[in-house]
Amino acid sequence: MPIPRPEKPAPGFPSLTPPGPPLSEAAPFPFRCKGCGSCCRGRRDLVLSGLDLYRLSARLSLPPETVAEGFCDRYTGENGLPALRLRPRRDTAACPFLTGGRCAVHPARPLACALYPLGQTISLPDGTVSYFLQPAACGEPIPGGTLAQHLEDSGVKAREPADIRWAAACLSLSEWLRETPLAPLARKIALRRAEKALYFHYRLDAPFLPQLEENLAALRRALSPLQK
Ligand code: SF4
Ligand code: SF4
To answer: Which residues contact 143 (CB under 8 A, 6 or more apart)?
Structure first.
């Protein structure tokens, strides 16, 4: 099942090809979610960004690393960076947050869930965001709906600046890791520090984006001495 991603892959944005042309925000988009939960079952592609984990952690009042341990698989993304995805339940293959057929974290659901059945691309370095329709037949029609209204209602528009910054930061970090010669132990240390900076080192009582910037600045200082 296709999911949102930028043109340059980053954690939270698996690499897939958009199935259709970008939609105009003024375009009609007469869609309302029926809450059937189909997009919450049998998925191993619900990849999280740092903002996704931060929002889930705030919703659950748990530290980000605890939420990752409890509900996510940790893996290495195709860009070489540490990444997280929601771990389906072993018994039902459903998302761990699907409870009684409903999303228990709906106000803090990840971007991939908030977008569905839309996909998203972020062009870098300019940060242009485009939306496209995935081949999904779900939901119910609402008269007069537009894409702009849907993006507003789903909270996707409000988080665009953080999602663009995340995609750019991950691209830059993955390029640095690919191009910088590092001894094996130094690479391991670099990846662990990157994981903390991208996902874990956040206070939940402070906004995400300024903390991401602080983490990236601290990460740059920490990575520099690791070069051969
Ligand atoms: S986080 Fe919520 S919307 Fe997303 S897959 Fe899980 S239950 Fe469904
Ligand atoms: S987005 Fe579609 S598949 Fe997912 S819960 Fe809503 S109607 Fe069902």
So the answer is: 30
Whether the pLDDT of residue 106 is over 90: the answer is: yes
Label residue 15 left, alpha or beta by phi (over 0 means left) and psi (-120 to 50 means alpha).
Answer: beta
**Average pLDDT taken over every residue of the chain:** 89
Q: Under a CB-based contact definition with an 8 Å cutoff, are residues 212 and 173 in contact?
A: no
Q: Which of 36, 133, 140 to mutate to test the pocket of ligand 2 (most atoms within 8 A of CB)?
A: 36
Distance between CA 174 and CA 190 in Å, rounded?
11
Ligand 2 contacts (CB < 6 A) are 33-39, 116-117, 138-139
Of residues 70, 62, 134, the one with CA closest to residue 97: 70
Query: What is the token pair recorded at 7?
Result: 């043109």
User: Could you tell me the sign of the dihedral formed by the alpha carbons of 83, 84, 88, 94, in that order?
Assistant: negative
Q: Residue 134 above 90 pLDDT?
A: no
Give CA–CA dist 113/79, Å, rounded.
22
Query: What does the pLDDT average to over 35-60?
Result: 95
Position 192 confidence tier, pLDDT thresholds 50, 70, 90 = very high
Q: Which residues contact 215 (CB under 8 A, 6 or more apart)?
A: 196, 197, 198, 201, 202
> From ligand 1's centre to the CA of 46, what distance in Å?
9
Ligand nearest to the CA of 116: 2
Mean pLDDT calculated for residue range 108-118: 93
Dihedral sign from CA coordinates of 55, 58, 61, 66: positive
